[in-house]
Amino acid sequence: MKLYLTPGACSLSPHIALREAGLKFDFEQVDLATKLTKSGADYRKVNPKGAVPALQLDNGQILTEGPAVVQYIADQKPDSKLAPAAGSFDRYRLQEWLNYTASELHKRFGQLFNPAITEDQKKATIAGIGTELDYVNKSLGSKQYLLGDTFTVADGYLFVVLSWTKYFGIDLGRWSGLKAFSDRIAARPSVKAAMQAEGLS
Ligand SMILES: N[C@@H](CCC(=O)N[C@@H](CS)C(=O)NCC(=O)O)C(=O)O
To answer: Average of pLDDT values for 128-145?
Structure first.
């Protein structure tokens, strides 16, 4: 398998999942500004949407959309428990978190990464993220991970999105549960290895 990624972007989530699952994979960096891969290839030929992540399977198929990619990875190694069994109620709980992270949190951060954002829009977006993080912090409560005692791909994705707070002066310390969660995930060997491989540590 080959993962197309951009250091520190949402592609870090499937990168962590691949390492958690212990799967064999290569990766190639994508420059999101030029849409060129590190080897100079046109990334739009891999993913016409131009966004990372994209996972190229050994049979040549390309899978995109982070929540789908991480579930695919998890299902390659069911014993890793990175995702509850398909069809179980907990699997829908996982999808609930993946979808919330993608469509609410990730999307809102995406607006902040847009250089054309005005100061007023930025303030409103940061306030909206704050309200969402209040909700996530409360839902997490005293649990170690979003689904309870077991790390899943939803935790890896939330960790990556939370890591973007530092770029916009959002103090994660405001939410003690989320700060502890983030520190807990950052200490996992797979996360350290993925971050090192992406040149982030
Ligand atoms: N819907 C996609 C969105 C992925 C996404 O927003 N990727 C960002 C990096 S975190 C990106 O590649 N942005 C550049 C672009 O879309 O041109 C998914 O969930 O995988």
So the answer is: 98
